[in-house]
Amino acid sequence: MRRKNSETCHARRWTNLLRSLWCAVCVLVLCVACVDEEAFDDTPQGNFEALWKIIDEHYCFLDYKQHEYGLDWQAVYNKYKVRINENMSQKQLFEVLCDMLGELRDGHVNLTASHDYGRYWSWYEDYPANVSDTLLRRYMGTDYKIASGIKYTILDDNIGYLRYESFNDAIGEGNLDEVLMHVILCRGLIIDIRSNGGGMLTNAEKLAARFCWEKTLVGYYQHKTGPGHSEFSSREPRYLEPSANMRWNKPAVVLTNRRVFSAANEFAVYMKTLPNVKLVGDHTGGGAGMPFSSSLPNGWSVRFSAVPMYDAQGQSAEFGIAPDYNVQQTDEDFVRGRDTLIEFARQLLVE
Description:
The protein has helices spanning 10-33, 44-58, 62-69, 73-81, 90-102, 122-125, 133-140, 173-182, 201-208, 263-272, 331-335, 340-350, and strands at residues 110-112, 117-118, 145-147, 150-154, 159-164, 188-192, 216-221, 236-240, 252-256, 277-281, 289-295, 301-311, 325-326. Strand 3 and strand 4 (150-154) form a beta hairpin. By secondary structure, it is of the alpha/beta class. It has a 7-stranded mixed beta sheet, with helices on both faces. Strands 1, 2, 7, 8, 11 and 12 form a 6-stranded antiparallel beta sheet that branches. The longest helix has 24 residues, at 10-33. It is elongated, with a radius of gyration of 22 Å.
């Protein structure tokens, strides 16, 4: 680990990326604007047609999901159209529309009304949690430190442990300097992002840059250029560049489970490209589409994936990525007060 005194290029790098993404969003706004609320009546049929068309023209994974599990968006239209009638209540309509959106199997797709929040959470609800607050309290005790969104301590075998529960919790460069300085003499470091559902991508990149020692290709992104399911711009590369501040050059392990999603999923993608980092735990939950929102004639808001992201090999991480070591929490370890994933990581770091 060392400290660089040269001026950071982090802000410039993100300015360029955000400028590109802003252009993508502007194109998307122009496209979504074509789905004018006035083009459809505020009736059950009108709202159904508006929602189906928004997804048909602007959702970014229709071709990918047709390939992965046979999604046929036109067949979905035919399946749910027969459930719409002009005498149905708003709550009945909401249920049908949510069921239709569920066919996309996307945690970034939500329908919001005043009475409910439609969501698809099977990407983690159908799998073991592989994390326990009871066990984490045992490992962290009560004297752990807190630096903004990160809780951290040193385990009794001189392994550093960082717990980052949400990338919505901001983290500053000064916070990260303090965290790394505290664990500087540790022989290895565990970064626990289990059940981190995402948040700000800038926080994910800021942390990942502390483990990066050269400019590294971490993936690609595209944006929609038209209403067709396959109308996209060419893929543009995304790079992770080393932080200008203190960095970690010893072995590190990232702990994952199925609830690692969105920006946390991207963090796992970044970290898997780095040579001194291993992922331990369960397959991540995915969420590799940058979300965008539109509205229906009745005022309900729909959020959906609009900008697809890919890993360094050009593969979609929409359904998550596999860890280097698939490790599950065992009942025997739980009874003994042991976190199976943490213990595996500790052993890996001292070998």
